[in-house]
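Notebook, bench 3.
Goal today: get a predicted structure for DUF262 domain-containing protein from Winogradskyella litoriviva so we can plan the truncation constructs. The sequence was checked against the plasmid map this morning, with no discrepancies at the termini. Length recorded as 596 residues. Pasting the sequence as submitted so the record is complete.
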Amino acid sequence: MSKYSVHQQPVETLLSWIKSGEIAIPEIQRPFVWKSAKVRDLIDSLYQGYPVGYIITWRNPDVKLKNGELSAGKKVLIDGQQRITALTAAVVGQRVLNKNYKEINIRIAFNPITEKFEVLNKAFEKSPEWINNINPIINDEVSITKAIRAYLKLNPEADEDLIEDRIENLKRIKTKQVGIIELDHSLDIDTVTDIFIRINQKGVVLSNADFVMSKIASDEVHEGNKMRKLVDYFCRLLVDKDFNKHIIDNDKEFAKHDYYKALKWMATGNDDLYIPDYIDVLRVAFTYKFSRGKFSDLVALLSGRNFEARTYENDIAERSYKMLSNGLTDFVNQTSYQRFIMLVKSAGLINQKLISSKNSLNFSYALYLKLRHQGMPESEIQHNVKRWLIMSLLIGRYSGSSESMIDEDIKQINEKGIEVYLHQMEQNNLGKNFWEFTLVSQLESSSVNNNAYNVYLAAQCYGNAPAFLSKSMKISSLIEQRGDVHHMFPKKYLAQNGYTPKQYNQVANFVYTEQATNIKVGMQTPKDYLAKVIEQIQDGVFDVSTLDAKEGLKENLKLNDVPDTLYISTHIDYNNFLEERRKLMAAKIKNYYEQL
């Protein structure tokens, strides 16, 4: 049996399917991204009888109802939404959202004499040679006879037979064929994705999350279309507070819904630490509520998939939509969201640049929601979630095939409980060998996006450590203010002595310091500038450093995990210094992790 069928349908049939719901168009509240000129080109191609590409649909499975009957699955649009939106705008006259989320009309003008199409503007509107709007003619709102008569009245010199022929051809646009590829419901998501990529010449990649979004957006029975808006609107409000006015003004129905009540706080909320996109929101809600990690499972469950009986049942679909709804509502809940952000910051992860893995954050939020839902005491939740977050960052838990890892972790936690599974993960991944060798070697890097280095900075923020050679300025303040990262062995000094950028930009050579200190140190050797700091302390002058006591200097170096050898170091000692400091940094991270 073929897994897909390819056929042609006239434009009017395609549009009637959309109107009747035969093809479920995802109600995507993202703007129509095509420029008006592209709509014009699509209409011109149809007029000329040129191919306009394929529409790809994926049939939902037939769902078994309570009375035993089968309900035929709708076709869900997988690719071709922009073309269909263009057709409904130009042919049907439907308004579309532009990039500023404003509803606009796209009117296409036609010149029967030259057979040219243009986007309507003032110049074409005033010219008698142009029919201002094609949709009333194509749509049968105006008869051909009336249209010809109106045109000839304005253009008496025009050839009547020619005009009649051209306007009739314009009307025939709705009978022009559009290719439709219908994929069978039995295909899995990976196969559908592969087909999509092969057909789509731009090489656009669909994620499984896109299938979930299309799935819920095309569902009205379980209010999936409103769930889609909940996700989209929340993500938009995170970065665009003015969008709230658009919801109130243009989506009054949604503004009355409980979903809007759940998310409207974000219109005045402020967060630049965790900025989830629609994939992240779905990931957290699904992992938390379903204790699964693979989006293909979610698509199947929303279709009513009974994994054991291999059938599709309405009860399962209904239950799955309800669970997803609860998961999404809990995700956007102000108390949960803000408490989770506070938890992350209290672990020292005070800035987005310290969090190298979005999926570590996503999983930790799903875990936080799960433990809260189970009624675990807040102090225990904080301990477990912080440790999981830092552990997953340190070992790069979700850097590879993240879906499989997420699926495995949430199932294990569901089965064994967080305490048992976390302890198991620590034993397997954070043993003596990790702290003393693996972590030390991870810090042998010149990349500031290094997981180990970012966790080290989080440990410094957690411990409220002071900036290098500073009495009162904290590292956390400098990170938040994008302060200077200083080379303890100045890079120009090392470069002059034959060191390469990869060598002098080692993260173990970095410390956060105040800009004034950085400038004063300049190209001096550590031996020289530290001697000057000691001299100034004795003289009561605070030029290079704000430290005012030798003990304070000693403590400052200790809190920045700087080996004592820095006092007497030149470039000859650089590599030994790095080796020593990496060990101290790793010990700091271990101590920090154990305190969480």
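The chain has three domains: 4-199, 219-430, 442-587. The CA atoms of residues 178 and 363 lie 43 Å apart.
Flagging this for group meeting.
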